[in-house]
Amino acid sequence: MRTRTSISSNYFFWYRQKDGDSPKYMMVLIRGVGSFHSTKFDESKFGAELVGNSLSLKMEAVDVTDSAVYYCALRPTLTGNTNTLNKNLCSKDNTIVQCLH
Length: 101
Description:
- Keywords: Adaptive immunity, Immunity, Immunoglobulin domain, Receptor, Signal.
- This is Immunoglobulin V-set domain-containing protein.
- One of its GO terms (biological process) is adaptive immune response.
- By secondary structure, the protein is mainly β.
- It has one domain (2-100): Sandwich (Immunoglobulin-like).
- Helices cover 0% and strands 49% of the residues.
- The strands form three sheets. Strands 5-6-1-10 form a four-stranded antiparallel sheet, with no helix packed on it.
- Strand 5 and strand 6 form a beta hairpin.
- The N and C termini lie close together (5 Å).
- 13% of the residues are buried.
- Mean pLDDT is 77; it is low at 89-101.
């Protein structure tokens, strides 16, 4: 999955939401530094890549258990512990993120 953004953020967050469940934090990709994964997601299976303003989510050995909605965010949009996530309601910046697949 690839996304393109019109702003040059330095932090990109990936979340996965399975049917009937809340979104789960997967990883953050920091421009020029690399990605940092949640311990609940296998680093060898899920990865992220940033080239210019194009962000890609890479998945290896995909199977039916990976069926979900995958979200990217330019800043943390969910907060909480690893069991309960809450949507942040205040945001000063809005941007359009185009998902290409």
